Amino acid sequence: MTSESWLSIPKGSHFSLANIPFGIITTPASPNPHAGIAIGDYVLDLYLFATHGGFSYLESFSSEQVGLFSQSTLNQFAAAGQEFHKQVRRYLQDVFSSVTTVPQALRDNQAARDGALFPKEHVKTHLPMKVTGYTDFFAGKNHAYNCGCIFRDPQKALQPNYLHLPVGYSSRASSVVVSGTPVRRPLGQYLANPGDVKSVFGPCRKLDIELELGAFLCKGNAMGEPIPIDKAEGYIFGFVLLNDWSARDIQAWEAVPLGPFNAKNFASTISPWVVLKDALEPFHVPGLLNDTELHPYLRQERQDNVYDINLQAEIKTADGKSEIFTRTNGKNLVFSFAQMLAHHTIGGCPMEVGDLIGSGTISGTEPGSLGSLLEASLGGKQTYAISTDIHRKFLEDGDTISIRGWCGKDDSNLLHSKVSSANAETLILSIGLVISLLLIFVLDKTDIPFIQNLPAVPSVPIFGNLFQLGSEHPKRLAKLSEQYGPVFQIRLGNRRFVVANSFESIKQLWINNQSSLISRPTLHTFHNVLSSSQGFTIGTSPWDESCKRRRKAAATALNRPAVASYMPFVDLESYVSIKDLVDQIRSGEQQSHTEKDSKKTANFQVDIDPYPLFQRLALNLSLTLGYGFRIDGGADDHLLREIINVERGISTLRSTSNNWQDFVPLLRIFPRRNDQASNLRRRRDKYLEFLLQRLKDRISAGTDKSCITGNIMKDPDYALNHAGGLDTTPACILLGVAILSGPQGQYLQQKLLEEINKVYPDGSAWKKCLDEEKVEYLTAFCKEVLRFWTVIPMSLPRVNVKEVVYKGARIPAGTTFLMNAWAADFDYEHFESPLEFRPERFLNIPEGSGTQHFAFGAGSRMCTGSHLANREMYITFMRIIIALEVLPAQDPAQRPILTGPLECNANPSGLSIEPKKFLVGFRIRDDNKLRHWFEDTEMATRHMLD
Ligand code: HEM
Ligand SMILES: [Ca+2]
Ligand SMILES: [Mg+2]
């Protein structure tokens, strides 16, 4: 056999031809768990391979044996015996070999390749075995010695029995889980301080890993009949990597006199792929020296009874930093698995197929080779500096541990170059949400300690629900503020938040302390999946040099003079939207004439959902400013819809204000969001590349007409995906139009028209609104739209970089602040009759009186696009009002909800409001004027249309 395959296997792959590990998989096509093998970047679905006749060239394979691969665990396959495993494995090596003797099985069999060979990303792995029993040993002598030094003293580090027998204990099979399964921090009893006589109860504070090897059995023994030492290897099916999670504080208190119990039984993670015993044969080496004379039942003939397996463990922190913190080797064992089995059964204990045997923690003797944090932190006495910015005594919430193992040299020319189990990767979660009673205890530990002199909401379990309530939570927080005052602290998981719910308190915190509230919290899930360049837009960046630079660039590109220079684009886009409305009215009119043959009437009403038009308006403006390119198609254009949908999806995923799981490990729902995010990322990469390529082509052809092209070339993320400019502007315009279509809107339109005619009696408003904002009532209307609809009800969260003192409370740097902008914009103390839509409230406000509402946030990280957004709104409303009558839809059931943003929201988990679908009636005011206005814009913008 050669190590080379016709399948392209990346150099260094853990799944080389020499490995062929077995696992249990599901694929989109086969949702029932069944067997597969990993090879390179692929997985061969064994059941489908078998049904395509893949095993018909293996003589010893009978057709009933196909059924072994349709089982949801490998237990039956394991029970078929080592000889069978060996034949199947070697046959599969032949199948994938470049000099395969059975090319027709797969290589030259298109149907089998299409049907059974899948890229590994399309495959989900599951617990490979039904674990019938789980016994964990303690055969890592270096680990045993280190623990002895920590808890006793170096002279008596090893217990007297230690070298005489493999020490072990019975652990729980029921909590053995496959890599990727989140692990909750267990609750239990422990001593808060050494020497205490009374225990405390709470979440474990000393959660640790144990890097181990696990062996699965493929054969049992009868009760009362011990397994002889030199036959014991014949009972082993294969090996996995094992992380025997350990609660050190619970262990220390409970273990005397009967040994570990709850400290070990909450979870043990194994890798999904079982490396067959056959695959590891070339890697036998002698283990650690044991010069104790053993009883004959433990004397193993072969000296090379353990394996030379490189092992390493990596930690990834909640904020995405990662580092390998230990590198060790499987040969650091003083007893072999055969010796463990011989000892396990010497009293007559029967073993079963599916039993799992753990080796015990494997530590080396060199620095950086310890298999647990207990050893690295000397029992928690010192902090272990894993890297310059990762320091641990024990695990913290949100840490992910990956264990890797491989054999042989990193050189694929070597036969059997590399054999390994897959990563055993696990995220640590705090205690879950299900049992709120337990939640309380986790909350004892927060990132920021309790803030003195600041009201706190005590009944914390409520918040588990509160934050799941989506659109309700601004309301719930506002309700709580009636009881606790406008500013209070809450805790969720390990995070403390300061929430502000009134106009005055937000002004005080966000504006008076703006040099302090200048940063933002970082997101976890998002950055783990989307690249960091796509994750860190300005609106999601903490305050650092890069953010400062990007914010400054954005502010310059969006300041008054810059925005004034973009008016031709706003002219074009607002015209295109209104033209589209007019075309729809006209075609509706025509249709009705042919249908009813009624006489032509100037005031024909058509009911339309104008949202797509406003979305196109905002997106095209973004694209023009960013890429010098607009989408010329209808509002249903494919690329347009794709960008709008993907950007909205990403904004929802990235929204810190509503996706609490992004920064509260407790709430992370990892796999679903990962899938979603990587799908969005793929789709996004596609059009970003398209847009960028187009821009480059135009630049090289000298035909680009963009304004801020340079920024884009440096930062492709710039144009799209700012803090919601794509969602917020269209939502505001749409909801403003919704108001106009309602009963009050009929009066408002009259009033607005009067005011407009006062300033522009000659009908020049269409054009002049591009250069000036003279209709004060319309400006006030725009502000009232922003306030009344507060389309980002919980503003983007902030983090303070310096201590903030608020009414005697000292809020330390690093605290997360939430602005309940919705509550502030409906604050009775500040606004008269806030539930009413009243543009008048924003008339006659003296210059320099500061923030008038919080729709754009406030202070140092306030929306940089507010000026552009204001201009887009003013111009679009102006033109709609003079061109069209906005009327209630004829069908009352299709009319909008006009009570406020939370009631009309279709996507409560999003960052911004996504209005529920509704229709608005439109009627042309004056065909003649319209024709002139359209001609004006067409003349002015002709050069901009390709
Ligand atoms: C009506 C439309 C819009 C609304 C309601 C809106 C609202 C907001 C809000 C509430 C914030 C958070 C501010 C804070 O933390 O205090 C924000 C941030 C931001 N917005 Fe807007 N926005 C709108 C349009 C736009 C547009 C059109 C652009 C760009 C062309 C834009 C670019 C940004 C950026 C870059 C940030 C992040 C600022 C930072 O973190 O420093 N927005 N926006
Ligand atoms: Ca262990
Ligand atoms: Mg365990």
UniProtKB/TrEMBL annotation:
Residue numbers binding Mg(2+): 244, 264, 268
- In what residue span(s) does the Fumarylacetoacetase N-terminal domain sit? 18-128
- Cofactor(s) needed by this chain: Ca(2+); Mg(2+); heme
Which residues are named in the active-site annotation?
Answer: 143
Query: Where along this sequence does the record place binding of heme?
Result: 863
Main EC class of this protein?
hydrolase
Q: Which EC numbers characterise this protein's activity in its record?
A: 3.7.1.2
The annotated pathway is: Amino-acid degradation; L-phenylalanine degradation; acetoacetate and fumarate from L-phenylalanine: step 6/6
UniProt keyword list = Calcium, Heme, Hydrolase, Iron, Magnesium, Metal-binding, Phenylalanine catabolism, Tyrosine catabolism
Q: Which GO terms describe its molecular function?
A: fumarylacetoacetase activity; heme binding; iron ion binding; monooxygenase activity; oxidoreductase activity, acting on paired donors, with incorporation or reduction of molecular oxygen
| Highest taxon, organism lineage | Eukaryota
The UniProt record lists the Fumarylacetoacetase-like C-terminal domain at: 159-404
Task: Enumerate the residues binding Ca(2+).
Answer: 136, 210, 212, 244
Give GO terms for biological process: homogentisate catabolic process; L-phenylalanine catabolic process; L-tyrosine catabolic process
Which positions are annotated as binding substrate?
138, 152, 251, 361
Identify the InterPro entries for this entry: Cyt_P450, Cyt_P450_E_grp-I, Cyt_P450_sf, Fumarylacetoacetase, Fumarylacetoacetase-like_C, Fumarylacetoacetase_C_sf, Fumarylacetoacetase_N, Fumarylacetoacetase_N_sf
Q: Which family does it belong to?
A: Belongs to the FAH family.
Protein known as: fumarylacetoacetase
